[in-house]
Amino acid sequence: MTIFELSKEHRKGYKLPHYNIETQEINIPGHLLRKEKPKIPEVTEIDVVRHYTNLATKNYAVDVGFYPLGSCTMKYNPKINEDVSNFEGFTMIHPHQPQETVQGALKLMFELKEMLCEITGMDEMTLQPSAGAHGELTGILITRAYHLSRGDHKRKKAIVPDSAHGTNPASAAMAGYDVIEIKSGPDGRIDLKALEEALDDEVAVLMLTNPNTLGLFEKDILKIAEMVHNAGALLYYDGANLNALLGRTRPGDMGFDIVHLNLHKTFSTPHGMGGPGSGPVGVKKFLSEFLPVPILTKDSKNNYKLDYSRKNSIGTMRSYYGNFNVMVRAYAYIKSMGKDGLKQVGEMAVLNANYLRKKIEKIMPIAYPDVCMHEFVATCEQLTKETGVKALDIAKRLLDYGFHAPTMYFPLIVHEDFMIEPTETESKDTLDKFAEVLETIFKEAREKSELVKNAPYTTPVKRLDDVTASRKPIFRFKFGEG
């Protein structure tokens, strides 16, 4: 039921104060005037509160249960970081204020930038991009600006592995590059021979994440960096999987020239449904002149300023300086964890993933059965051939047992697959229970396949028609049609 369906004539949930002020006629152009009164629901305050509270209880979230989305790092976010981000001194400032009146906010952003540079091994960083894909585009535009500044106009290609996140080729294409896909080797990692064949003097960049989307560490990363740089190209790091490396190693030490981060994945901001996010981009010193403006600086008197003077900057990537409250959460998270805490995050993320991998390999095959980092990919392709039960069916059945499904059907190089990332915040009890439920569902699939194919049964909404929803979406309530 929608809030409009709760509407009853003459109900109100507010009362405006009376003001004794003189009114004057305002001439508004006719084409801007409504032809009829807006359809606003007439409801009481308690109607509104109960309606949206009930809707909230129907949502699944990481605060409700296990959320093992691979490559998304949907981990629990400490509430203290939420509290800090809501301090009045942060929420009641405005980006148009004079810089001298927001020194505290600028100091926080500057120190966050410095900490992120240390964590990633970069020399300079912008906090401006709104999220990961926006950071990707920023990084690729920096790549283009770098090559053009050298008069190297022939570099029109961006190399992307076949296991890459889908936003990688999209970002490269948006920046005007021709995307060259290279196949993974039999071990799920970069095929060095295929990379060598793809590298030429028209390649601008190799977009890579390490560990990769299969959860495997690119053990030849130093060789890869050498090959890319010898070809005159840059090495770009997709930071979606940084959670596995915190405190243990840094992209900058592996040879990466540009890094984007996902503060909303790795550094404590609840994310999903399009935001809020933050995708800082870090670069090595030789690329710093191309960063978007403004750049955060500090003078000899410890005054924090916004520098707009970079003449070779790619410009401004969004309004103002980025999603500030996301930065506050990340700052609080890093400060509270400290170096030892961040190191433990990486260690526990890897431990949890490998523990769950060993539990699940007894139930379904692991696509690349090697020691993984933060995530792994399992496949139920054989079960599908035997029973007709697909990964989607298993995902729906998991909902009946109180678990959100892992990422499905990605990466595309594995069929009927789940990409599973338990993160560092889940307990052994939760991982054991998840594996137990998965085993139960596989047993159901073999003994009562129709039970699984028609799941879920306990959710507010049953099995949806995904095809119709995609092809004939309904974006707004239609009055009079119920």
TrEMBL record:
Catalytic reaction(s) noted: N(6)-[(R)-lipoyl]-L-lysyl-[glycine-cleavage complex H protein] + glycine + H(+) = N(6)-[(R)-S(8)-aminomethyldihydrolipoyl]-L-lysyl-[glycine-cleavage complex H protein] + CO2
Molecular function GO terms recorded: glycine dehydrogenase (decarboxylating) activity
N6-(pyridoxal phosphate)lysine: residues bearing it: 265
Cited InterPro entries: Aminotrans_V_dom, GcvPB, GDC-P_C, GDC_P, PyrdxlP-dep_Trfase, PyrdxlP-dep_Trfase_major, PyrdxlP-dep_Trfase_small
Keyword terms, alphabetized: Oxidoreductase, Pyridoxal phosphate
One Pfam family it belongs to: Aminotran_5
Domain (Glycine dehydrogenase C-terminal): residue spans on this chain: 347-448
SUPFAM superfamilies (UniProt xref): PLP-dependent transferases
Enzyme class per UniProt: oxidoreductase
Cofactor (UniProt): pyridoxal 5'-phosphate
Superkingdom: Bacteria
Ranges for domain Aminotransferase class V: 153-274
Family: Belongs to the GcvP family. C-terminal subunit subfamily.
Quaternary structure and partners: The glycine cleavage system is composed of four proteins: P, T, L and H. In this organism, the P 'protein' is a heterodimer of two subunits.
Name of this chain's protein: Probable glycine dehydrogenase (decarboxylating) subunit 2
